[in-house]
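CO-FOLDING WORKSHEET

Operator: S.A.
Ligand of interest: manganese (II) ion
Run index: 425
Mode: holo prediction, single chain
Checklist:
[x] sequence pasted
[x] SMILES validated
[ ] output reviewed
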Amino acid sequence: MKDDSPFTHALIGCLIAAIAGVLAVACETPPADSGADAPPGAEADAGEATDTTAQQTDTTGQEPPDPEAAIIRLDPNDPNLEVWRDRDISNDPPREPGPIRVGSVLSFFGLPIARTIEDLVVGEVEVAFMGAPVDMGVGFRGAGEGPNALRAMRRSTGSMETMISWRRELTAVDYGNAPIDNLSTERSMEPIRRMVREIAETGAIPVIIGGDHSIEFANVAGLADVYGKENVGVIHFDAHYDAGGTRSGHLISHAQPVRRLVDEGHILGRNFIQVGLRGSWPGPEGFEWMRENEFRYHTMAEIDRDGWGTVMQLVLDEANDGPEYLHVSFDIDVMDPAYTSGTGTPVPGGLTPREVFPILRGLCSENNLVGFDLVELNPLVDPGYTTTLNAKQVVDECLTGVAMRKLGLGSRDYLSPLTRRDARR
Ligand SMILES: [Mn+2]
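OUTPUT RECEIVED:
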């Protein structure tokens, strides 16, 4: 039904003005490096290292073209303009609020589903999964299929390292997917942020399954909305630092969430810990920017020199020396492509499952974890399901850590007495 009332037109006009305002402000204040952080000789690295200089040198003496003239604006009369509108539950059958068991219908780890905030509250939900199927931020198709690939995995959880099953210890649900605009990364941020905020406001931990890494911005900003600016620390597992400047005028893509989070003041640089950086990006300017902002980072070069055991202890110590709340953002490309070929921008020389799993249990058990995201899983280039299998295990290990903490076993060193030599009777 088309609504032609003046009120509706005025409302939509305001909305467009607000969007235009945001764009205008963003255009007036380009990030300091404006894409100058590509290292010498670094050519386009599968999309993630393709910052381009915003302004070409003008050799003709003519005025540069007006960028505004090139923008094709949105149709204000499209009834689907507001991608962040509330989920339509008008066709749901009447029922008491609370998690809904769905039998063999696919959900993350076979969990019950939740449709409303009341479902989360009444069900005393501690962990709410959500899908954020964005793939425009990586620049090609596939990462958006990540949530459903993970939902299709077999549902077994837990492992003999701890003999703890998080599914037994924690109340968890699948809260569905965020209502993104799959033609716009920019417009997809707000609905994801809002859904993260909804979950966090109930006290539950949002576990966001991407989707490309642009969603880290929405995830962490949503958590900061609830827990307060500068009150959340982030461990960023990634081959890339994801703090790139503007590219073709865009201020959000899978290469930029970290820059936006710091520039907008959601997170202090010193509360960002980066693990697994390698390859050609960033160059010196990117590292200088991180140094200026007091980032803590651990490159693969450092890990190769000092050994994973040493660096893992350092990261766990640094996580304990931060704000009260912790978010873990896990880009599957931090692992070596031998284990995770199904991703958009693989870089050789990464972490192994043996290195990744214990640090996740440690981080998620020793800290007050308030959010977790798993991103850049692209099942369209994962022919052997290796990546999806490892991605599932990554989530599993972190939630095992959350369950360990609940049981009073929160420690990086905890292993079940049944499965270690020194506890033999
Ligand atoms: Mn990333």
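REVIEW:
The chain has twelve helices and eight strands.
The first strand starts at residue 127 and ends at 132.
[x] output reviewed
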